[in-house]
Amino acid sequence: MTEIKPTNCHFCGYCCAFLATVEDGRVIDLKPDPTRYPYDERILAGCRRWRMNLDVLDSPRRVNYPIRRVGERGSGEWERVSWDEALDDIANRLAALREEHGSGTLASMIGGPHASFWPLHRFMNLFGSPNNMGIGQICWNPRIWMDAITFGWTVEVDIRFGLTQALFIWGTNPAQSDNSQFWQTIRAVGKSDEVALVCVDPRYTQVAAIADLWLAPRPGTDCTLALSMLHVIFAEGLQDQAFVDEWCHGAEELAEHVKPYTPEMAAEFCGVDAADIVRAARLFAKGRTALVSGRGIDQTGKSVAPTHRAICCLRAVTGNVDRAGSCIMAEASDFTSEVDFELTDLMTPEQKALCLNTPYAPLQCFNGYELVRAQTEKLGRRLPERYMTSASPDLVLRAMETGEPYRVSALIVNATNPLLTYADTNRVFKALMGLSLIVVLDYYITSTGAIADYILPCAGAIERPIFQIHGGVANMGYGGPAAVEPYYERKTDYDIFRGLGQRLGQGEHWPDESLADAFATQLAPTGWSWEDYCTIGMYHIPPEPEKFLKPGLDGAPQGFATTTGKIELASELLPKLGGQRLPEQGPFMRLCSPELVARAEAEGGHHVTMLTGSRKQPYNASMYMENPKFRASSPRPVVEASEAMAAKLGFKPGDVVKLTTDQGEARFTFAIAKMRDDIINVDYGWWHPENGTPHAPDFGGIWESNVNTLTSCALQEPLIGTWAYNAIDCVIQTCDEPLSW
Ligand SMILES: Nc1nc2c(c(=O)[nH]1)N[C@H]1C(S)=C(S)[C@@H](COP(=O)(O)OP(=O)(O)OC[C@H]3O[C@@H](n4cnc5c(=O)[nH]c(N)nc54)[C@H](O)[C@@H]3O)O[C@H]1N2
Ligand SMILES: Nc1nc2c(c(=O)[nH]1)N[C@H]1C(S)=C(S)[C@@H](COP(=O)(O)OP(=O)(O)OC[C@H]3O[C@@H](n4cnc5c(=O)[nH]c(N)nc54)[C@H](O)[C@@H]3O)O[C@H]1N2
Ligand code: SF4
Ligand SMILES: [Mo]
């Protein structure tokens, strides 16, 4: 029998709507579904991935049954086991390790937003471990924290033709990272005479190419740049004085604080023209200004929090907070928020006290969360607790390595490939090899899967329902139903964590029998049924602007959910955690010892600043590398530099180059691209999935061109525990050894 069933793609965060033709439980065709959100012809026209869905659904590389390691860790020998056997054994071993070392002994790792992570977080909470490592600290959390601390909640960009007068694209490149809807909007802005487009990026991206102004700061200097723009705004009296007087706290202090940040001083430090800083400041203050930022400022290390704070201040003094055409503060969700669904409140104080971050990253921990929660709750909003308190990989790895302050002996890896994507591959590899138990949930046997004890096969898009909620910080969720039951013996991540939880005495906290039932429970407070939602594909109540003017409980304007009820240009909260009242530039993260630099220079090498992981289609981190069409168009991992830099380094396109830091080395092909003349830009995620099941010693090729053999997650930033993938250093030199690519 042939049926047409609604379902969704999940190769990126858009989760586009599709119609599947299903015959006997198998999908034989897929087409975009124009009747449901999320559907946008322009996205699909620009998307290089959606046609892969059918191949991925039944790829010969997929893991279809639970498998268990036989032989040495990493030997690549596996046996098929039943689900009961796998879950019983994992649960028994976790219970025994908890008995021996305490509940913090289990750690977890997640990656990009490939799945709903609350089932993992619920499981970890009920198990009693705070040790969920994530990419939160370097992706999303810094902005969310600083927005919440400065404005009382997070803001989302709001671009409106006829209202918006400037758009700043700051350290993000949606042309490559955002499967293109937002990029189409930016292109429209680029063409429009009404809206000035400003790109702040050390590389000449596709956004820079259509911008009215391209500012290319030295990596990691954005905080100084923003403070200098504030200097110009105050010096020229361009601030929105009425808004500042009524709604901002600490304006005079801030004006005083930015006095030394003259355009000339910043020009020297940031490596840009003073005149361009003045121009950027004037454009920012001209009227309604929208701004989007990304990895370019989230992943620069010690200055991350102050950079976001300085940008918050720019928005605030120009009256661009919670205003149509600039940015709008999100609303709390009508559906059950992520924080209530992950059940963090069920952790005991003793379990929370196991949090390793507490003294080292005083914001990114339960104490910091409580302080911020006390504020955001004034207006009924709460951040997702487990992302915002996710454990520092540096500290969890140390607990694996040394047993201090207690032994971390077991690890669940959910939808991530940390041997390619976490910082410091050599360290991660060694730490993981010493563990008692590693369980990987994935579609494939990845490099990380290769060193696991169990690989549990996950159901993907089409086979599972989707309710994508962005951490639940907005009143929006989208997606739809599964078109088919999971193929073979695959299970949803939810079913796996529920199955493990039930075996560990958590049964009462997993009342919903399936992921779709859980989503229905989550939606229930909205009055919508799961079926209503699946028909429309989205629950979204757009936030209204200028909520601060609306009456609160006492009838007076509700203002902002901060200590002072105003936007805190000068923070009253951060100093309580040892942070800065007013933002200041921090130092850079350094990965090369003087000895390494001296040795490399003696061999003709150069010590340079690098960016890593700048997004490029068609790949996504370590994914899709086996796709032959993609590989034909992007066959090799590259290091790029400008023409002038290439001349200085003495490389020509196609040369093989070696990069080294104190952490390790990796080899790439050299290529030319337009960017600042004092940096290089290095690809990330490269391995050889096409070579078959990965195993020792190269685990699918992780020692050759994997940029994270060079990086470090050493805890340096004092509030969030952020590390750096950009604005770091390495030495670069020629290399005789050819590449396998
Ligand atoms: N040097 C450097 N390192 C970086 C970055 C950088 O810019 N430079 N960026 C960082 C950032 S921002 C991020 S978010 C991370 C991304 O890091 P990861 O998320 O680790 O990267 P992916 O390669 O996308 O790995 C996803 C894995 O999840 C599996 N998967 C996909 N969907 C599902 C699912 O639904 N369920 C399960 N169980 N598995 C699934 C895939 O098969 C794949 O193996 O990398 C970080 N690392
Ligand atoms: N194709 C593809 N798309 C992806 C992903 C992927 O792996 N591949 N990953 C997804 C994930 S997990 C994420 S987090 C998002 C990230 O999405 P984005 O934040 O848009 O990431 P990028 O496209 O790398 O853009 C970051 C830009 O910052 C610039 N930059 C680097 N250092 C600095 C600096 O110090 N200052 C400034 N001002 N700019 C700097 C880089 O040159 C780069 O152009 O992309 C998502 N989309
Ligand atoms: S990859 Fe993203 S943009 Fe493309 S179809 Fe899938 S969800 Fe939509
Ligand atoms: Mo990310």
Describe the protein's architecture and organization.
Helix content is 31%, strand content 17%. The longest helix is centred in the N-terminal third of the chain and has 19 residues, at 83-101. The strands form 7 sheets. A 7-stranded mixed sheet has the order 5-4-17-16-15-6-7. It has a 6-stranded mixed β-barrel with strand order 22-26-23-25-24-27. A 4-stranded parallel sheet has the order 11-10-9-13, with helices on both faces. The chain has 741 residues and is of the alpha/beta class. It is globular. The protein folds into 4 domains: 2-57; 67-139 and 339-533, Rossmann fold; 155-329, Dimethylsulfoxide Reductase, domain 2, CATH 3.40.228; 594-734, Barwin-like endoglucanases. A hairpin with an 8-residue loop joins strand 4 (67-69) and strand 5. One ligand MGD is lined by residues 112, 139, 170-174, 176-177, 200-203, 205, 217, 219-220, 222, 294-297, 300, 611, 614-617, 619-621, 726-727.
Name its key features:
17% strand; alpha/beta; binds molybdenum atom; binds iron/sulfur cluster; 4 domains; Dimethylsulfoxide Reductase, domain 2; 7-stranded mixed sheet; 6-stranded mixed beta barrel; 741 residues; Rossmann fold; globular; binds ligand MGD
Name the hetero compounds present. Answer: ligand MGD, iron/sulfur cluster, molybdenum atom
Quickly count the helices: 28
Name the poorly predicted regions.
Answer: none
Tell me which CATH architecture of the largest domain applies here.
Answer: 3-Layer(aba) Sandwich
Can you count the beta strands? 27
- Specify the helix fraction band: 25-40%
The CATH first-level class of the largest domain comes to Alpha Beta
List the quaternary state of the chains.
single chain
Main sheet attributes: strand count, strand direction, barrel closure: 7 strands, mixed
In the sheet with the most strands, the strands line up as 5-4-17-16-15-6-7
Give the rounded overall mean pLDDT. Answer: 95
What fraction of the residues are assigned to beta strands by DSSP? Answer: 15-25%
CATH topology of the largest domain: Rossmann fold
Q: What is the 3D shape?
A: globular
Structural class: alpha/beta
